[in-house]
Amino acid sequence: MGIILPMVSLCHAQSHRAPAAQPSAQPSGPTVVLDTSSGRLVCKLFSKQASHTAENFIALAQGDKDWTDGSGAIQHSKPFYDGTQVFGITDGISAGDRASVGMGTAGPAAPSEKTSLDADRSGRLVALVTSGQQSSSAFAVLVDPDLEYSKRAVVFGQCDDASVDVARTISHDLLTTDNHPAKPVVLRAVKIVADGQPLPPLTEPAPGEATLTVPPAPAPAVPAPDPTGPTAIIETNKGALTCKLFSKEAPVGVANFIGLAQGTKPYKSPTAYTEVRGKHFYDGLTFRRVIPDFMIQNADMPGDPEGGGDIGFHFSNEIVPGLTFDRPGRLAYANSGPGTNASEFFITEHPNHRLDGNYTIFGQCDDASVKLVESIAHVPRDAHNRPITPVVISHITIQPAS
Known about the structure:
This protein has 4 helices and 21 strands. It is an alpha+beta fold.
């Protein structure tokens, strides 16, 4: 059994609110048993509400549907999921890609199935969606309510509470290692159990599973630079975050951050549509988006919990060779695509190479700050990933480089 390469998860640092799902829908289809090398997950399918997705999943799991392997050969009567690798993603675990980055799925993506279901509760079993196209085989189990998946997932099952606990442990173990654990988490088998039938025995390890390892992350071609600019002290009602800035590597981003923090850069109020001068922009803002094992992200304006407000300017990414998300505590700009940086920033909790090349890193926070990021990321939050009790930035002090 060979190692399946990591799948890139859908985890952009900026999102928008989605409508809540109807709470009354109950799964009525067969039971799915997901036996992994780190525990069993049991989920019941929404065969009525998500009929196409549920039927496709069952057919792939049982080997009733042909699929194409990495060499281009068509596989007949062979279960698709057995022996594949499990990966940690934002708020869950994923599987169903036998290669990586969508190149090892069972077939081409298709328009996503429309249902009345949403990711509004823990334990949702979902098919993953990218730009409105539903993967033919990639799926996830979500460990928390997370409506950020409303437009990038189709709910087709509900897992029980014990399975959520298993998935949460797997997700944490994988995300803390940036999906490079010493041993891979293997999806040994997916079994479909009809109503009234007992659950099958646990699937035994496949031959050779005990010897599997995950290749280490590739070494960077260019050594990572150290920050040499000023230090930003971000004071919050939970404590202070201390981050040294990359003035040399991200001069535009650092100048923008300092100007907004010190009130020397004007901006446009997205609500009053007037220019604001001389105001310390970040004072009073909240961390509006917190996700355990991922990051914390600030709001772009007071009273704008969704983010994305137009403050009158944007600037391009500053991507520097060697400066990657290879360590916790990276301070970076959130964006909704190249050239859309403005004021929102996020700080990572763990190494996170799947973000590389998409976001401007402009600071590095110290070890004590990483501990605080972890604490903030784990505060109670709602289904929009907003803290129940606001985490507020009181002031940002810029200390000159020594």
